[in-house]
Amino acid sequence: MSDSSTVSDRDSISAELSYPFEAVPERGALLEVAPGVHWLRMPLPFNLDHINLWVLDDCDGVTLVDTGLGMPDSKAIWEEVFERYIDPRPVRKVVVTHFHPDHIGLAGWLVRKTGAPLYISRTEYLMARMLCLDVRDEPPPELMRFYEAAGWDETQLDAQRQNGYGNYAKGVAELPAGYMRLMDGATLSIDDKTWEIWVGEGHAPEHVCLYCAERDVLIAGDQVLPRISSNVSVYATEPESDPLSDWLRSLHKFKALPDTALVLPSHNEPFYGLHMRLDGLINGHCAKLERLARKLDTPKTALETLDTLFGRKFDNPMLLSMATGEGIAHLRFLESAGLVERSYKDGVAYYCRTASPAMSKAGFVEYSRGPA
Ligand SMILES: [Zn+2]
């Protein structure tokens, strides 16, 4: 079980966003942030110590968006919220933005408790169901080979082995065996209002955001966070993927949403300044890509690039694995762009710049829009 949102924020801090709410809601309290849209904050036992959930009025009932980590403390808070704010009104939908445990953790529990159906995209549902079932005593060989290839030393590999495998299921209550599918470009009616479904990729494979034009409100999940940048990682399950391309294309796509929208992120506070933030995130990654490409004048392992990318070392095994995944995501982007080549020695991957001309940060920003 991990806090899978972020390892780094160095390149992406935006000072000029505006935060319309001075205080965060107290434990177990709802705070109305737009007509019929209520903010609920849940604790998380990670560096990132909270998640924002949303309770929406829905035709004399409510719809819940995201659910908190599957732990007793979050359940106790939900019980309090039901008693103070929801009962005896029915819950009409349990909506989940993506499969990460802090978002989906209590979805199954809430579905059983309320009888409401689960609304989620297909890939996120299948990922969550798969990971809940994938519990084993030892990490699979693919995972260990992945970290070996990244250049981890024996001590780091051992720490990973000691960590075991299958922690995901510990933070996620059993999910229902069926769900209602949310699809990019479709709509969902909540309180007789139309919410557009905007899918983003890269942080999670089919992450759902919801935008209501009538309210000019965007429920952004982890797709657009104001103060930290979401983790974008290559995983051992798909070692040749290029999630950073997906991520950057999604950020460009979200600029079609109005800049006036009130953005409700899963971490930190609601804010205005969507386009500035999207640009900040795109620029942050592109600055990293430029820096990384420059550094690869001699062959380096993924591990050896982490200092360049994050400006720090990672001793904690969980943070090291997140940083490694994110480092490989940047390397894979450069490789897909033809700027970097990979070679292997004793199972370890080395990345080195090709003869292609260097690309500036602005060049990366342009390139990251993807094919027209
Ligand atoms: Zn997430």
The shape, in one word, is globular
Oligomer: single chain
Mind describing the biggest β-sheet?
7 strands, mixed
The fraction of residues in strands falls at 15-25%
CATH C-level category of the domain at 31-137 and 166-283 = Alpha Beta
Distance between the termini: 38 Å
Number of E-type strands = 14
Helical/strand content category:
alpha/beta
Query: For this structure, what is the CATH homologous superfamily of the domain at 31-137 and 166-283?
Result: Ribonuclease Z/Hydroxyacylglutathione hydrolase-like
What is the C-alpha radius of gyration, as a whole number of Å? 21 Å
Low-confidence stretches: none
Task: Give, in order, the helices and strands.
Answer: EEEEHEHHEHHHEEEEEHEHHHEEH
Question: Helical proportion?
Answer: 25-40%
Number of helical segments?
A: 11
CATH level-two architecture of the domain at 31-137 and 166-283: 4-Layer Sandwich
Bound molecules: zinc ion
**The CATH topology of the domain at 31-137 and 166-283:** Metallo-beta-lactamase, Chain A
Task: Output mean pLDDT.
Answer: 94
Biggest sheet: strands side by side, in what order?
Answer: 1-2-3-4-5-6-7
